[in-house]
């Protein structure tokens, strides 16, 4: 079994089959394709607003919205989604040029914008629905890092780390979830971090934001358990992307070793296909996370040696 394969019902938490889908509401968008699957589905009918010029053709392919798609993991998710299935990709990032490059390479539609504000998140949800009529899969991946002592962290940076890593996924889910629940299908993937499972020294606010995503997912899963909507959390360790350069502090630890963004992208796609609850990348990182929960004293002794 490879690092990416997960035994159903074990620690990666494959979700139980969802409840049968209720019929779509009158005049609603109709049944949506199952998240990330290739099977042909009926085309959505009766979408409300007329399509704007930049709209994609309304086909039965699942609509996948990926944030943080202009770089690193998000760009790799876009490439992999395109390579492995018939999907309509909506891609968000701030850097228009890089985002346009990823969109061109993956056949997706660029929806540039800043997610650090409530209006930016609302605008993205609105544009996604205008462009494609619905969102079947949300991959909330945009994120920024910060390393340094908490005491001296500039308050504006603290706000930004929380806004991008934690608040923006919550806002996007808040905007897009009701329609998924109405359709009786949909999938939310939250890209967190192992830092959100164990807490990393010098990354307290980043860890808090990612930890918040993990418990948000656990909580939300309870709420939607009979709705046909699935929630996955992907927790990468260290990934070889411009993330560290952008946060202004290189990665210095010996372990975990950086993995390519493509491995995380593969995990994201698999989490959607198998409706996995929680996926660590690489998989062995679930061990310190479990150890912290089950034997905290031992975990803290080991962690302080590796720090
Ligand atoms: N790299 C790692 O070692 C690692 C480990 C664990 C978890 N993660 C998580 O994985 C996710 C992707 O990170 P990455 O490694 O791919 O880093 P990256 O290459 O720096 O990509 C980050 C992405 O987030 C976008 N973004 C940042 N701030 C934004 C904002 N205010 N509004 C909209 N988009 C914004 C960036 O857009 P622009 O570039 O266009 O600004 C970029 O597309 C993040 O959530 C990160 O926390 C990364």
From TrEMBL:
SMART domains: PKS_KR. InterPro entries: KR_dom, NAD(P)-bd_dom_sf, Sc_DH/Rdtase_CS, SDR_fam. One of its GO terms (cellular component) is membrane. Residues 62-242 form the Ketoreductase domain. Residues 1-58 are annotated as: Disordered. GO terms for molecular function: oxidoreductase activity. Residues 1-10 have a biased composition (Basic and acidic residues). Residues 17-32 have a biased composition (Pro residues). Pfam families: adh_short (PF00106). Residues 41-53 have a biased composition (Low complexity). The keyword Oxidoreductase applies. Keywords: Oxidoreductase. Belongs to the short-chain dehydrogenases/reductases (SDR) family. This is SDR family NAD(P)-dependent oxidoreductase. The lineage of its organism: Bacteria, Bacillati, Actinomycetota, Actinomycetes, Kitasatosporales.
């Amino acid at each position: 079994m490879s690092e990416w394969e997960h035994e159903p019902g074990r620690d990666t938490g494959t979700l139980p089959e969802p409840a049968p889908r209720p019929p779509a509401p009158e005049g609603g968008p109709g049944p949506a394709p199952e998240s990330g699957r290739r099977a042909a589905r009926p085309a959505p009918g009766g979408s409300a607003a007329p399509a704007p010029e930049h709209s994609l053709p309304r086909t039965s392919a699942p609509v996948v919205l990926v944030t943080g798609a202009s770089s690193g993991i998000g760009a790799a998710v876009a490439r992999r989604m395109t390579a492995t299935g018939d999907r309509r990709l909506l891609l968000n990032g701030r850097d228009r040029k890089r985002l346009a490059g990823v969109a061109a390479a993956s056949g997706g539609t660029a929806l540039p914008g800043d997610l650090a504000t409530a209006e930016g998140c609302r605008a993205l949800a609105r544009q996604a629905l205008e462009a494609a009529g619905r969102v079947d899969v949300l991959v909330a991946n945009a994120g920024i890092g910060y390393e340094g002592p908490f005491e001296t962290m500039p308050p504006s940076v603290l706000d930004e780390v929380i806004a991008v890593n934690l608040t923006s996924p919550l806002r996007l889910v808040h905007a897009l979830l009701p329609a998924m629940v109405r359709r009786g299908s949909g999938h939310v993937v939250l890209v967190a971090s192992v830092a959100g499972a164990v807490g990393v020294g010098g990354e307290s606010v980043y860890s808090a934001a990612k930890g918040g995503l993990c418990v948000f997912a656990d909580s939300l899963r309870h709420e939607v358990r009979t709705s046909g909507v699935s929630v996955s959390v992907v927790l990468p360790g260290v990934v070889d992307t411009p993330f560290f350069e952008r946060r202004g502090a290189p990665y210095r630890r010996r372990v975990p070793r950086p993995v390519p963004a493509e491995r995380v992208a593969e995990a994201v796609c698999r989490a959607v296909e198998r409706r996995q609850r929680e996926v660590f990348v690489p998989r062995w990182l679930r061990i310190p996370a479990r150890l912290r929960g089950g034997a905290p004293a031992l975990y803290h002794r080991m962690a302080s040696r590796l720090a």
